[in-house]
Amino acid sequence: MLIKTLVIIAFVAIIASLGSALFHLVKHKDKVNSQKTLKALTFRIGLSVALFIFVVIAIATGLVEPHGLGAKIHSSQSISEIPTK
What we know:
With 85 residues, the chain is mostly helical. The protein has one domain. 73% of the residues lie in helices and 0% in strands. The protein contains three helices and no strands. The longest helix is centred in the middle third of the chain and has 31 residues.
């Protein structure tokens, strides 16, 4: 539950940073606010990379178990044994 909460908080922070960059880009077009846009986008990229690394580590250590299509492919069958329609 804690991991899901951290991921949701990270997604909200990424969206907020993207919104902040959009606001500074559209509302103000001078040099100072251009730097604010750059900082907001840099912060968003840093958060995205950190979230990606966190999820990869969580999957590798077994804290998070993937499900869906990728988990079905990597389950007990190999890719060549999966029946096609």
